Amino acid sequence: MIPINKPAIGEEEKNAVLRVLESLQLTDSSFEGGKFVKEFEKLFAEYVGTKHAIAVNSGTSAILAALMALDLREGCETLVPGFTFASTATTSLFLKANVKFVDIELETYSISVKDLAKKFSKNSKVVLPVHLYGHPAPLDEIIEESEKHCVFVVEDAAQSLGSKYRGKMTGGFGIMGCFSLYGTKIVTCGEGGVVTTNDDILAEKLRMIRSHGQVKGYDSKVLGLNLRMPQMEAAIGIEQLRKIDSFIKARRKNAMFYNEEFGKLKGVRLPVEKNYAETNWSIYTVYVERKRNEIVQYLRERGVGATVYYPTPLNKMDVFIKHVQLESLPNCEEAAEHVLSLPVYPTLTEEERNYVVKVFKEAIRTFL
Ligand SMILES: Cc1ncc(COP(=O)(O)O)c(C=O)c1O
Fold it and tell me: Which of 94, 99, 182 most suits a substitution to test ligand 1, by most atoms within 8 Å of the C-beta?
C-alpha cells in the first residue's frame, strides 16, 4: 500500500533520540521546558516568525491550552468551521463553552466569512479558522470581522506549518496559532503540538497551563494540566524542522505533477492555491462529482491509500448532538460527501507517483 502519508525520518532524528537517551533528561517539568524543548521552541518561533512558541504534547492540547489562556468558560461561545478535525471544536466543550458551527467555502474548504459574519452573538469570544489541507483561510477578512465583534482569532494551524498568507507564515496572525506534530503532519515527532503567540502575558500563561499552573515548582498559580512535550519528541522536532523547506518543496512538486496530470479529467475539481496563499501541500485533496466512496475503494483495493478528510461534517457527528445546537451547513455536508485525498508525502518515489496517477485516472474513467 502506498500510504496517505509517511514520516520522513533519517539518521538525524535517530541520533537525536539517542542523544536524549544518553543525556538521561527524558522529561523536564520546569516552566522553561528543559534543554531540547527550549531549543525546539526557539527554532519554531523563528520559523513561524512569532515572539513565542510553547511546545505541548499534541495539537489538541495546543488548542485546549490556547482557549484556557483566554479564560474560555461556561457562557462563552466559540465559532468553528463545520468541516475540520473534531478537536477544533471538542476542546471548547471541555471548558463548558458553547460551540457554533460556521459553513465553509467549497473552493478552499476554509471558513466562510459571509456565514461567520451572520453567526456572531454577544457571547462569542473566539473564532477558530482552520487552514485546512494547508491552504490558509482568508485571514484579513476573518480578523476584520472578528475585531468588529471584539472576538479573538485563534488559528487552527494544525495542518499549515510553513503555509503563507500574503507572504507571512500562518500561525502568526491570530492572538495565538495552534500547530500539530502528529505522525501525518508535515513536521512530526510522533505526537506533539505548539502554540505560537506574540503576546508575552499569554505566553507566560501557556507555559503555566502546560505544567500544572506552576512557575517555580509545586506552586500552582492557575489551573493547569500535564501537557508537556517530552524531550525526545522535541529532539526529533528540531531535526524535522531543519528539513521543512525540503519537505514542502517535494510536496509541492508532487502536487503540481498531479494537477498537471488530472487537469483535463471531467468531474474532478483540483485543489486551488488562491493568489494570497502559498500552501505547504500537507494534504492533496480533490473533489469528485459522484461516487466518491467507490473511487476511494477502487484506489485502496489497488494499493493507493486514498483517504477522506473528513467523511462526517461536525454538525452530523454524534459527539456534538448533545452539546451543540445543530443546523444545516450545506457546503460542509457537500465537501464531506465529495472530497478525497491522495498521497503527496515528500519521499513518494517517481514510480509510486506515476502509479497513483494511473490508478486514479482508471477510477475516474470507471465511475464518472
Ligand atoms: C485541523 C486539525 N485540528 C486539530 C488537530 C489535532 O491535532 P492532534 O492530533 O495533534 O491532537 C488536527 C490533527 O489531527 C487537525 O488536523
Answer: 182
